[in-house]
Write a structure and sequence with these properties.
Rossmann fold; alpha/beta; about 30% helix; 2 domains; about 25% strand; Peptidase_S8_Ser-AS; about 400 residues; 3-stranded antiparallel sheet; 8-stranded mixed sheet
Length: about 400
């Protein structure tokens, strides 16, 4: 049975020489030379079955990676408490925790992309922001879920009723890609949205979503596969998608180093599947892919921080993800918990660091990553395991 495959391919003919025997190589799913990363790339979706996939690879030498489309799911907040908490210094702890109130930078001149459920662009938190929206779901722009609006409010929202809810409040133009609709989404949609964001000048891409492995198994079973075969095929598709995201991230990074595009930092929520102290779950895809910065969630207790009970382990760094008050669809504010809420904090802080590096003529991805991680605060996490919070609590530049 034919399935949809995402194909990442070079749009230039580039000869690649093997480092060990001098033979000419072609990029494929199994072998990717360093030289091919200099080529321009594009993305397509092909309808193939297992046999066609191998034949397609043999006959298309410019293929860099190929993977079946897999369902995407929202990394759902652990709690939604509308109206249960009112904005105050006590409950807006996250703003002070990342140091933005004492920073002289605001993200001015930096473009953030939020790939999520869309945005309520009429919310007062987004007054004065030039919002460029693109719907990848077929449902139309807007946000019927509220998740994307909340994340956007954290990343760049303006003050609401005199209370600061956003990090990069000087950002003037943003990209909002709606990749999750009422029925979720899929990896081909997300890949397309990342490509769109890069082409439209995004410096930071924030994604609070994950691959739906159980959903993919169920989809294969519905097509007639036995459970054991469905799980096996799903695992292979899962692996191929991780590699696909890795290679896409590497291509974007290399194009930036060749001055073909602007530097782009890609962020992904680590996931909410852990249940401390009973068990911990590792970072979920696509955030686990090399080239994507994974974000864990922290809460505040007394003068210190703690790793949220739901936050997956192995994150690159962390940010506030408990009792986060931000924009609610239809107006007003709402409190949510999740690594979904932590990720846009990092997007906002990264925008501040990017602004600072640009003013010093030092802006590239390596410098941005180095400053972002080196400035993290881990001193208030002395009772936690380092693998659970990564570099620590992200911090704004002074």
């Amino acid at each position: 049975m034919k399935k949809k495959y995402i194909v990442l391919y070079s749009t230039e003919t580039v000869e690649k020489q093997s480092l060990d025997n001098g033979k000419t190589l072609s990029p494929s799913f199994k072998a990717l030379s360093k030289e091919v990363l200099k080529a321009k790339f594009d993305i397509s979706v092909q309808s193939l079955d297992d046999q066609n996939e191998q034949e397609f690879l043999k006959s298309n030498q410019n293929v860099i990676a190929i993977a079946p489309t897999i369902p995407l799911k929202l990394i759902k907040p652990k709690k939604i408490a509308a109206g249960s908490k009112k904005p105050s210094d006590e409950y807006l702890w996250n703003i002070g925790a990342v140091g933005v109130t004492s920073s002289s930078y605001s993200g001015k001149g930096i473009k953030i992309a939020i790939l999520d459920t869309g945005i309520d662009n009429s919310h007062p938190a987004f007054n004065g922001v030039n919002i460029i929206e693109k719907d990848f779901t077929g449902e139309g722009n807007g946000d019927t879920n509220g998740h994307g609006t909340h994340c956007a409010g954290v990343a760049f929202g303006r003050d609401v009723d005199g209370h600061r809810i956003g990090i990069a409040t000087g950002v003037e133009e943003v990209l909002i890609g709606k990749v999750l609709g009422q029925d979720g989404g899929s990896t081909d949609i997300l890949i397309d949205a990342i490509h769109w964001a890069v082409k439209n000048g995004a410096h930071v891409i924030s994604m609070s979503l994950g691959i739906d492995f159980p959903g993919y198994v169920a989809e294969l079973e519905k097509e007639g596969m036995q459970t054991e075969a469905a799980v096996s095929h799903a695992l292979e598709g899962y692996r191929k998608n991780i590699l696909l995201f890795e290679r896409l991230a590497n291509l974007i990074r290399t194009q930036a180093s060749n001055k073909s595009t602007q530097p782009v930092l890609i962020l992904g929520a680590a996931g909410n599947e852990s249940s401390r102290p009973d068990y911990k779950i590792a970072v979920s895809p696509p955030a686990i892919s090399d080239g994507i910065v994974s974000v864990g969630a922290l809460g505040a207790k007394g003068s210190g921080y703690y790793v949220a009970e739901f936050s997956n382990t192995g994150a690159t760094l962390s940010a506030p993800g408990v009792d986060i008050i931000s924009a609610e669809i239809g107006g007003g504010l709402v409190s949510m918990d999740g690594t979904s809420m932590a990720t846009p904090h990092v997007a906002g802080i990264a925008a501040l660091w990017a602004e600072k590096l640009i003013t010093k003529r030092q802006f590239n991805l390596n410098n941005l990553l180095a400053h972002l991680t080196a400035s993290c605060d881990d001193l208030k996490l002395s009772k936690e395991q380092p693998e659970d919070f990564g570099a620590g609590m992200v911090q704004a530049p002074n």
